Amino acid sequence: MEIIAILATTPSGGIGKDGRLLFRDKQDMKLFRDKTKGSVVIAGRKTFEETGVLKGRINIVVSSTVSNAPFGDERKEIYVSSPLDAVKHIQLNKQRFMRELGTDKLKVFVIGGASIYEQLFSKCRYVYHSQFFKDCDYDRSVDIPDYFDKKFVDTTFDNFDFIVYSNQNHK
């Protein structure tokens, strides 16, 4: 099982304002879809409310205030009370999730928000980072920890660089 954080930020690390994502870029959204399709995603409740159910993925929502209930999609979201509970739940259900997703290697993507990233960065092998060239106002930010080495700038798009970081502490 491989855990990867995926995020889009301003040059100074901003990820959100007033409970909303900062960027609605077509190239970034396509990149996000392509990278996360057929995987498990872990999202905080506010991020989940912003994105909704991500089809073609198993959606795990971290919330201390919402119980496990369907939201009108063919698959129920799975609610857990902490990011570490999300990881434990995935480990316990790994074989079932791999069958449901039709894969022999399970990928798990941490998709936000800030506190979810902060609590799970140490468990991530990679960070996939869309770093936008434009700075803007934000009230939520993320700092990628120092134990991640910038592996390479994978692609430069019109409005952002897609950068891959590798966790030097991950075995």
Short note summarizing the structure:
This protein is 25% helix and 33% strand.
Brief descriptors of the model:
single chain, 171 residues, alpha/beta, eight-stranded mixed beta sheet, three-stranded antiparallel beta sheet, 11 strands, globular
Q: Care to describe what's here?
A:
It is a single chain. This protein has helices at 26-36, 45-51, 83-92, 94-101, 114-120, and strands at residues 2-9, 14-17, 20-21, 40-44, 58-62, 78-80, 107-110, 126-132, 140-141, 148-156, 160-167. 25% of the residues lie in helices and 33% in strands. It is an alpha/beta fold.
Radius of gyration: 15 Å
Question: What is the number of beta strands?
Answer: 11
Mean pLDDT: 91
Shape: globular
What is the percent of helical residues?
25-40%
Largest β-sheet summary? 8 strands, mixed
Poorly predicted ranges: 69-74
Number of helices: 5
**H/E series, N to C?**
EEEHEHEEHHEHEEEE
